[in-house]
Amino acid sequence: MRSGPSLEIVLDKPELLVRGSFDEAAPVMLSGKLVVHLHEHIRVRSLKLTFSGRIDTFVSQSSGGSSSKDEHREFIAHTWTFLEPQKAPVAWGPESKAFPFDLLVPGDNPETVHTTLGKVRYHLQATLERTAFHANLTASVDVPVKRGPVPGAPWALALMESIEAAGNWDQQLDYRVSVPTRSLKDGEVFHTRFEIEPRIKGLKLISVGVLIKEYLRYYSSAGEPLHRFARVVARNENFISPLGTCSTVVRRSDECMDLVDATSIQIPMAVPPAYTGIQYDVHTDLIEIRHRIKFLIKVRDASMLVHSVFIAVP
């Protein structure tokens, strides 16, 4: 059985990657084609495709107060009219039709954001208007916009540097923690190395862990801070066996490793998928999102007391 006529938006690239900061980023090309799938003749009055970028905040939902400080702003809009509105409809079909489109999107627009209290969304919406007694055809698709460094720029070189933290805890142990790079991408797995050396006898190494924390701030159009929130978006704690192997299976402290000599342990961490699990770093006048990575070393001392040593990266 044949399906009826339909619209399809086909993008050349499923997302837009902007290279560079707001001040230096060049425009990026949004391109594709709007396909009108036909198996029979239809009568058409008009056909258009619109692209829009919006930022919306819903901070009043967090406080139960007035929505007067919520913001709803369209910062980019463009329309392609492939068939101007016709008084007398034109006949199309039965062959399908394809209409290419392209647009240079400025590089100083914000990245896509999806949070409970705010979002930045880029959207394509197509509408084919038909004659009376026939439903119009529509299609829509979101276009994620991400930002990355310009290769060779100072920002890019800084992201290539490793994350490192070293110190001493309570004169009982020395530690050094490292991650190979600061450029952690959504959906990828990275590894953290813990190098731990005891300074006293009687210590047991219970577990080591990594967490990624996301910090969100919302502002009014006048720059007034309205709401801030922090959440852990990813966490991995590995418990250490007497032989030094790692596992997420919880162990009692007396079942863990005796920390006699310097030891090195490496554990993996998966970065959550973008938007559903983690947001990109972003800074607009209404929404700001930043991330920090933190480490955990959990030990039991000679007095049988358990201590959690949290290490924050500057």
Notes on the structure:
The protein contains two helices and 22 strands. It is mainly beta and 314 residues long. Strands 15, 16, 17, 18, 20, 21 and 22 form a seven-stranded antiparallel sheet that branches. Strands 4, 5, 6, 8, 9 and 10 form a six-stranded antiparallel sheet that branches. It has a four-stranded antiparallel sheet with strand order 12-13-14-19, with no helix packed on it. Strand 20 and strand 21 (287-300) form a beta hairpin.
Concise account of the structure shown:
This protein is mainly β.
Quick tags:
6-stranded antiparallel β-sheet; 314 residues; 22 strands
Structural class: mainly beta
Principal-axis shape: elongated
SSE order, as H and E?
A: EEEEHEEEEEEEHEEEEEEEEEEE
Rg for CA atoms: 27 Å
Helix content: under 10%
User: What is the percentage of strand-forming residues?
Assistant: over 45%
SSE blueprint and pairings:
Blueprint: E1 6-11, E2 16-19, E3 28-37, E4 42-57, H1 60-63, E5 72-83, E6 90-92, E7 97-105, E8 113-114, E9 118-130, E10 137-142, E11 145-148, H2 154-160, E12 163-169, E13 173-179, E14 189-198, E15 204-219, E16 225-240, E17 246-247, E18 257-258, E19 263-270, E20 282-283, E21 287-300, E22 306-312
Parallel strand pairs: 2-11
Antiparallel strand pairs: 1-3, 3-7, 4-5, 4-6, 4-9, 8-9, 9-10, 12-13, 13-14, 14-19, 15-16, 15-18, 15-21, 16-17, 20-21, 21-22
